[in-house]
User: Fold these one by one.
Assistant:
Number 1:
Amino acid sequence: MTSTIEAPRSPYTRSTRKSGVNWEKWGWIYMRVSGVVLVVLIFGHLFVNLMTGEGVSALNFAFVAGKLASPFWQIWDVLMLWLALIHGGNGMRTLVNDYATSRISRGILKVAILVSVVSLIVLGTLVVYTFDACPAGSPADLLPAVCSTL
Amino acid sequence: MSSATIDQKPIVPEEIKSFTVTLIIRRFNPEVDSEPHWQDFDVQMYPTDRVLDALHKIKWDQDGSLTFRRSCAHGVCGSDAMRINGRNRLACKTLMKDLDITKPIYVEAIKGLPLEKDLIVDMEPFFDSFKAVQPFLMNSVTPEKGKERIQTVAQRARFDDTTKCILCAACTSSCPVFWTDGQYFGPAAIVNAHRFIFDSRDENAAVRLDILNDKEGVWRCRTTFNCTEACPRGIQVTQAIAEVKQAIMRGKA
């Protein structure tokens, strides 16, 4: 009897790269650059939200509404949203490439990642730019307390 | 001559004690077994003995069927890379006194390459990656007759670290990305590409950079430093890979 243990990796089939954009390279550069920017954005975000002024107790609907009304924080938050989601999505993609063995499971997982990243980016961007704390014409009992002071 | 020397007792060197070491070796005989299994052996060892000596003792005195590779047995040929207590090392460079001998020593074949028998794996996929990076000097200019290709000390020092590679596969088979089903070149191939990419005498750095600028090239490196830790020659493997990445980004070595 002779038994062979299955080779741990599939046989040598490295495809020759077609010319054009090398996405792996740009993906890698994106991870490095966005990582550095995100360190500043996220720690800045945490510092402003949790440590300045009244600290964590200041966080409420009015605080968030106030921040989202300022163009500075709109850009800050949207930048954070896009960079972080693409950074995370690309990281998940590399994990899938590393650990999902069959073509089908790889495809399904990557599509799922893409769909969730795109929908979160769209929803998040929509919220940041269309957010209105006190929509006109709404019944007063549904509006937050801050609206009456405006 | 004084008689004092006669009274002195001859100096007896302190006896070096040997001890029993248990080795648990992952065995696989393709003609008998369907699965690898662990088998333990007790051997009498000195602190200055190496794991390779223990394997020799087992093969010569206890079980002749134990199969492993070794050639020079002095850490130069790179034949006997194996996984000792979960770390990739050369059996001929791992001393008993550096291991915790109160516990058994686990020895198995390196991972990520097809297992053939006991501690022997098929190295072909590893050497295929090595060959793919064209690890040889490419230069269109013939040096002056009777002369060598001139290089400054600094130019030589640039790639000195990566010339130390002995192709033992300890780094490549410790890489978690290499273990996956992808076709990642592996650290050893990139180290050997680095050796020529940064060699001032070589003209084809761009070709090698293009080969490694592949989907399965340097970008799959996750900088886990397993390779640097595993290298028995102390090559800064992860740094070499990072330098190749930098060279690809800049488009030149």
Number 2:
Amino acid sequence: MSAAAGQNAKQSYWRLVWRQYRRNRPALLGIVLVAFMGMLALAAPFLAGDAPILMKKGGHIYLFPNLFNYAELKAENLYNNFDRWEPGAGEWGLRPPIPHGPTRQDLKHRLESPSREHLFGTDDRGRDVLSRIIWGARISMSVGFISVGLALLIGVVLGALAGFYGGWVDVVILRLIEIWICVPSFFLIITVMAFLEPSIVNIMVVIGITSWPGVARLVRGEFLKQKQMDYATAARATGLTDRRIMFRHLLPNAITPVFVAATFGVAGAILTESALSFLGFGVPPPTASWGEILKQSQGYVDFAWWLVMFPGIAVFLTVVAFNLVGDGLRDAMDPRLRQ
Amino acid sequence: MSNDLLVVRNLVKYFPVKQGVFSRTVASVQAVDGVSFSIPKGKTLSLVGESGSGKTTTGRLVLRLIEPTSGEIIFDGTPVNTLKKGELRRLRKRMQLIFQDPFGSLNPRMTVAAVLGEVIRTHAGRAGIPAGFLSKTAGRDAGAPSERDRIMELLDLVGLPAAAADRYPHEFSGGQRQRIGIARAIAAEPDLIVADEPVSALDVSIQAQILNLLEDLQERLGLTYLFIGHDLGVVRHISDMVAVMYLGRIVETAPVEVLFENPVHPYTRALLAAAPVPDPDAPRRRVLPPGDIPSPINPPSGCRFHPRCPDAQPECSQREQRLIEATPGHFVACAVHVSKV
């Protein structure tokens, strides 16, 4: 009963935010687009791929054979080769709506313009562009969220320490932030990625550790404000530990603007990943990523418009969507704009 | 051993005023400048004075929420001002604070039960402190009351319904929030409570309820109060002793009736005269000359009150005034008037 009552009251703040958010049409469009991109990323194996979702073969029924039946498939030379599989008598396979794997090459169908078979056309190795864009959403979304998550982790901790303790702790962390901000982060990322093995994990880490200073400054400012409040003094007078005061009392009251910054951060991270992949420092081929598709199109821009247009639109829509959500969230949480 | 729970000797707090790139200290705000007082167990001492007189700072210094520049704070025989961080945290159980602003003093993201539970858990079973004077069944042997029971008991004690436990602060009125603040303070089972203008943000009708609650709790739990206020009616109602502060110093201190019936210091007289009297036909007297309290960055020399004092003598700007015992228990920092008593 107590949990339920608490839940109600907790919802009321977010309900208030949501009521305000709903009035904002562009922000609503943004959240729909973000949800759509998220669904694409989550549902990629159901939407596009060579492997059947459900298949009957040799008297057995397999669900997601590519995932769960690796050994059997390998023995029959079917693993990653489902495009060549012809169901025999009494056998069948339920394939995804776009029956093309993101990395499957088909050199007989290179650089085909959009058609019924390949809705977004094919690239210079005959790979289906739509399938690659759907799987690329996974890369973009995960890079966006995980790198921002890392930036939040570092930024919140350092910002909280600086704001809470002040004095020399604050001075040291502030100088660190200033130094970090002076470094042109994109070139730093390129340099670091040139030395590191190109992998998606490295990209996430590098983007994460270059984008924390903004978060840290924000959190520091909020902490400076919140620690002056009477409830913070009360927590101190109670005899709580510093860690508890910081993370249980101050942080929940300081986190709102950080949410907004994080939303913009996701957009920035997605853009950075695309740019890195475009320049060849990103996810290693043949993994599908939006920037990677754009890179592959470089020699063919003059006629293969579909290679540039569709991944470009995907990047554009996603980045705009996150920015709209961030704007909407900022307005909805601003008590001065509340009606 | 003396009967005093809290003894403060020569408490001083200067806040540095910093300026420029290298944070040079160019001046200091003399917020509290040599304050001494003591409070016997179970009694209430009130600090009164205008805004800027250092009352609130004194209260925070006593709890060591602000580090004093110098001076001694002795709580139940323990010198608070030399305690290390961990020892201080343990002592915090025994000295609590009630705030003026019932809105800013509660964490908006925590339910009442979360606020109280945290205090209970922080101080539960600390060595050397008897468990639960709050529990009616009392004693650990009878089975220690669960946290939830304690929360309900606290809410009952401050006159809030049990349903309040799972609500958030914004769902309460100012007076109810102040009750929550009081419940938080007594949850730690303290001996001393510093009440920093606990009723001045409330409606008059609610003020009386809260004051009665504070008195009731004092009686039932044997609390000692350091009450900070500027409403003289409130102060007269709740105090055993009163200390009047002006610009960081105590100018007069006496048992409450003595001070109200027989004020000696011209500042105390001015304060009492300025208090509204609930009688429209009462003659209006204005003793306090116009003007604001001078800046504590650069306080007047000699007696700090002399620029505004109606009875100032030439030597008042030269000579520092010390507290002199005018009648037993009644101390006044004004040589001019004490000689007339």
